[in-house]
Amino acid sequence: MSVDMVELSVTTPQPVKPAGIPQKNRVFLDFFWDLAKPDQEVRLKALENLIQYLKTNDQADELEYSLKRLVDGLAHTREAARPGFSLALGQVLGAFKQISLQSILNQIKQKHNLQTAKKKFLRNAAFGNLFGVLALHQSGRIAEEPQVVLGCVQLLQSLSQHRQHLKDLPTQTMTDILNEIPEEVFEEVLLSALQTDLASAFSTPEQLQLLLVALRRFPRTLKPKKLKKLLGFSTIINADNIPKLTEVLKMAAKSSKKECLLPPVVLDLLKLSLKEDSFQLFWNDAIVNGMLLKEPLGPTHYLCYRLLGSALPLLSEAQLKEVLSGEVMAYYAEHMASSQKISQKGSRFQLAPEMDAYVSAFLQSCQDADKQLTVMVAFSLLSTNGFLLMPPTWKVVQHLQPAALQQYVDWLKKMFLQPQLDKLLDLSARRHRDNEEQKENSIFSLRRWIVSRLCSIIDNNQVKKEEDLIMGVARFIFFHAFFDVKKGSRDIEETLGKLSIPLDDRIRGPLVSSFFGLLLSLHLMPLDQDPSDGAASYRRRVVGITADGTMWIYHMAQYAQLLLSQPKYAQCYNPFTPEQRQAWDGMLESVANLKKKEKKGPIPGSGAFQQLFLLVGFYLFKAPEELVDIMKDLQSCVDVALEKNAKKKKKKKKPGQEEEPEWVDVMVEILLSLLSQHSRHIRLVCKTVFSSICPDVTKTALTAILDVLDPEKDEEDGALVVTVDNKDKTKNPDEEDDDEMEGNKSDESDDDSDEAMEEDDDDDDEDDDDDEGDMAEGKVDQQFRMELMKVLHGQNALATAEGGSSDEEMDDDAMIALDKGLATLFSAHKKNAEAKKDEKTKIQKEKTLVRDFKIKVLDLVEVFVARQAGSPLVLCLLEPLLTIINRGMSSGSDQQEQDFLRRVADIFSASLYVVKVLRGAPPAEAKEEPTAGGAAAQDLSFMGNVDVDRVANVFKGALSNFMGKRKSPLSAQMFTDLFTRFPVLCVKLLDTIVQHITSGARVYQQGQACMLMLRAMQSREVQQLLSGAPWTELCATVSGQLAASLQQVGVTENKEVKEKVLKALELSQFLVRSVHRQKLSVDLQPLKEVLQSLTSNVAFKKTGKLEDTYWAVMKLLGVQKPKVEKTKPDKEPVVPQGPTKKEKGFLPETKKRKKRDNPILEPAAAAAAAEAGQATSSSRPAADKGQVKKKPKKTKQKRPADGAASQPNPAKKSKTTPSESKTAKKKKKPKQKKEGGGKM
């Protein structure tokens, strides 16, 4: 062996490769393989490792080999590999300064010579040269060797001829080289070489880009005189060159269509126009007239819009005003309008996100407030047909400087008071200047948009704004929502602004809605803190107050009081009545009293009560008739709550005097009435108030809350709303009775549930309507048929139709009368149908409002369970909540109802905690006893003050609901949590679980019953509580139920049935193991018999959890899994194979000719017959083309060719034949078995 190795080492060296490298270091060679892989991360890692390896080893031959491999890889056939080798070569050249760049350039030219390359490798050679130049440029050393720079440029110029392969990459590479070299090298070496390229600057965008880079990088070399000598003109942008520049810009726009980017040459031209003081000429003649107005909508327009966005940081304030008020902005508005319309129907390219990015970048980088204001005002004026296009909520506002933001807000206010439609950037408005109706609609749209923009500025917490600005916006919106100016006053700033066009009634609604949305924003506005403050982390959570600690809403109340107290200057749009004014003054007095008492000491819930007072007070401006009585009751309740002292408690009730309700009961009633308002702000404040009064809530108050949620109470109060199913299909989300109350900050969770409910309604209502139509069809058709019969009998038309006599035809008068009667009948029928439809729509809306109200009331229940978890009153929630779940679950429940029931179920599950609280800690005596047996059982059975039977009945009802209903919001996890926390309650529920193993509503529930029983029986606490005879009895009962449940399983492939069987088998496994381990007297024979017959009904796979679990149970019962015997090897030798039998290609079995069985011959005769058959097959090669197995045939055809070998060896040939027929036998296995049986 050693001799062979020596010979091998002597004979295998290759003269082409460097000696020893491939044999010595395989890791080194793997670097080059990784450089060619498509994964960029792998390539970069290989590059890093290669340079580190070369630096560490410092071997000249390895470095030389690396350079050769990298140069070769520049023309790799795999496109992803070329950049990897180019980058690696550049990095190696940068790391090893001793390598001459000229030698590498010569090596690149020699290896990838375009003159000697074959035609099919010409493209790869061109890319090899290009990536070689890129590698030299990336080395960072190209400026050190001017001759290399010249050589690279000349090579790139020669590559420009192969534009079909490289496109404009050579010119772009020359541009990159110009950006790196110093001016001396350009003047001495490159200027003469690039004269042709610079002179043809207007031929392509890349050539022009090369000239612009040279002008920017080498201004001393390319002076105007030199430029005029070179090009014939001293400036690039002039009136003569505008047509040429326009054509180049069009070419650039079309070439960058797919990239959706602004070509660099366009921005460089803009910069050059600013430098040459020819911006106006370039913008008006080249961009507007040449690109925008003369070209259709497409890439040229998009280039103009992108240039506009990119030019914002480069222009002066005067230039910004000129550009942002010109044709480009007007056409951009048209683009926005058309893209918004079409995007609603289908996909279309929109430039708005790109423009937002341009504006955002400009505002972030610009510190000039005047420029920022100019840009914001210009984009705010974009409109079409008088409707503003920019969204009211624009995130770029957060980048405004405080001064610019204040000026912008002042501009918005001024535009609201004095709309100037002529300043809108709107091409369509020029065609509708004299349309009065269009003008009124435009003014309304403008004012509504301004109000929304002002509110969005306040609502955005990222915007840096002063408190004065916030208060100014809030006062402005409140004043114009509820007041009118009578006379100007310096004390009231809003009275100084005069309306050029009076406010119409349409704008009042959006103003009121925006104001209440603004109140919610102020309520949630965080307090800004100094980061250096030590308590800043805590104070950041404080919301709804100003820096001095006063609530925002209180500041607004003071402003409202100022307006009401000076009717000389401001008049309320809907003046208060004396009673309403008294309620307002009483509210302010109550708030003042609360503030005074707060100074003496902290009062729980004082801030919440103030919020509620002030919020209800502001709603007096919106709906005074509804809230006057609520305000009075609220004042009396708060007075009693704050004055509940010993004097009040000692007062005795006089004989015959009715007992007054508790103040907390009245407060809960007030909160429930306020929750009926469609306002998220009221909802949040009510939750806060209720949270503060939770310790004082009585059973009466809690019952009032539960009565609202009780479905039975709904039937008593309004049977129409509750009894009619929700089957309306025409719900319009905009048609809400109190939509204005919500404002801009509508309840997101409510809106989401409403939208989901509407979508599900649209899906479910079709089926429901069909069912309802089928049910009512008989009645409706019968009534309509009777009326129709009357009309026909009245005109004797029925007799004519039924008699069938063609002689007795109706005259014209009778036909006209019949037509009138039928028209009247069908018209009345149609009106009745529409009336029923409208009634159903009304009922649907009412039912939706009721559900929405119940969802809000659930907030109070959640707060009570969370804040008063240890209160015995929580137990009062279990039965009502379970009743709600039972009554609410139905097949017709929509998504909103399902969400409501899930929340109820979550509260029901959370109420489990109160059981633990009421149970308390076990007695100390039980803990101290050392005996573990009795003490442990006593500890587990301890439930303290809990009425175990009552609580168990509640959960038993919930469990029956879960097992007996097809749809239930409850889950098995809720009951497993209960079993873990309270084993005593688990024991009480075992009978119900065992029962539902066979009587569950569905197969799913039966499987869940098995799972719950398994979890219960696995609990050590449950085993201890049931130790002895109860445990044995439970095991026997479970065994019988499992046998009955598995016996119900028929022949099926249903997935749910298999899941149930799997859970039953898991329970059976634990049961059998427990019976055997504990030696319990439980008869398992019935279960064993059912399990043995189970395989005939349920198909088990060869492997899988179901089969494994089944045989694990059977093994415990003494039944072993049968071994599968492989019969195939045993039967194969039995089948005799005829030597001449061959496959018939792809013919079907029915078309194949069946040959008779050959007689069994002696070995010599068989060999002779085989030779004869092979000779016949070799003489007919065309007949074998259709056969599948080609290799065996070739072998059989070649063997007879050697006559010397075939004649004396017949036994060897017969030994080969069965192996060939064995392959054919595998293909037709069933048929061969049958034939074999026949032959035997």
TrEMBL record:
Keyword Nucleus: yes
Biased composition annotated in UniProt, kind: Acidic residues: 748-775
Pfam families in alphabetical order: DNA_pol_phi
Superkingdom of origin organism: Eukaryota
Keywords from the named record: Nucleus
Compositional bias per record (Basic residues), positions renumbered to this chain: 1188-1198
Low complexity composition bias: residue spans: 1164-1175
One of the record's GO molecular function terms: RNA binding
Cellular localization per UniProt: Nucleus
UniProt key word Cytoplasm: no
Bias (Basic and acidic residues) ranges: 1124-1133, 1140-1150
UniProt cross-references to InterPro entries, sorted A to Z: ARM-type_fold (IPR016024), DNA_pol_V/MYBBP1A (IPR007015)
Region (Disordered): 717-775, 1124-1240
GO cellular component: nucleolus
Cited PANTHER family: MYB-BINDING PROTEIN 1A, MYB-BINDING PROTEIN 1A FAMILY MEMBER
Entry's family note: Belongs to the MYBBP1A family.
Name of the protein in question: Myb-binding protein 1A
Organism: Gasterosteus aculeatus aculeatus
